[in-house]
Amino acid sequence: MKYTNSIEIDLPREKVVQLLADPTHLPKWLRGMVLHEPVHGIHGQLGTRSRVVLQSGKRKIECTETITRRDPADLHGIPSEVVVHFDRETVGAGMWSVVRDRLTEATPETTLWESESEYRFSGLLMRLVALLMPSAFQKQSQQHMQDFKAFAEQGKDVREARD
Prior knowledge:
The protein has 163 residues and is α+β, with helices and mostly antiparallel strands. The chain has one domain (2-155): START domain (Alpha-D-Glucose-1,6-Bisphosphate, Chain A, domain 4), CATH 3.30.530.20. It has helices at 13-21, 26-29, 124-132, 134-154, 158-161, and strands at residues 2-9, 33-40, 49-56, 59-71, 84-92, 95-107, 110-121. It has a 7-stranded antiparallel sheet. Strand 3 (49-56) and strand 4 form a beta hairpin.
């Protein structure tokens, strides 16, 4: 299953990249984030492998994320025409996914975030869910992007919405 989501954020690209790259901000906009810790490498750097734990209702999901592309490697002072690429592969029980994020400067004060997602499932239950409700995955990805936008532009924290 493959799909693409996009959103425009009312901040300069360099600021968006900084916020996305900072692991301390993940729980503020990524719903269900319990843990995101590097087990090999430095957070956000090419080749880094991290243990990720997410909570979905009463169910905890544990997986491994690997940064497969970060281009350019140094994000300071990059020209406006350069597209920032940030790709990661996630593997969990019965699931494999890859997300390819592209950040472009829409204007000097706005950023276009495009995200391509691809999922593959090996477990019968997950394959069935993907067949019956493919739009649920795309909607969840779009929700994460909207939550990031609200966090980046207005400081909204998804953890406060749950209370």
